[in-house]
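Take one protein record:
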Amino acid sequence: MKSSVFNNGLPIAIGCDHAGVDYKEYLKEVLQNNNWLVADLGTYNMDSVDYPDFAHPVAEMVEKHKAAFGILICGSGNGVCITANKHQNIRAALCWTEEIAALARKHNNANIICIPARFVSLQIAEKMVELFLSVEFEGGRHERRVEKIAL
């Protein structure tokens, strides 16, 4: 995994619902094997849970600058993405291809990647996270647009 534009000593906050447990565990191991600190905010088994209970804590860590960025995983990716984006200054991006993950960083300065576990392979999820960690925000005309997002 490449070095990160976020490599500032803060952990990566990761959370999921029951549909994303296997993906969370896999990504957590990959990140830790590449010397990343990971704050695992659950869930920890496949018992049915409510995704906001895990999306809000990840978004709060990123929002309060206690995490460099976040990873959220649920079945479709939509629930965690909608929930995280309720937080001010969170730009959670639903990603299902490598190109979308890269563009979420380049053009939207996304700070949380949301992964649909039921629709992407573990290998694609890993590659998307790698890109999310290594691609820099382009700024320029995109900066003006990102500044218009927050209320």
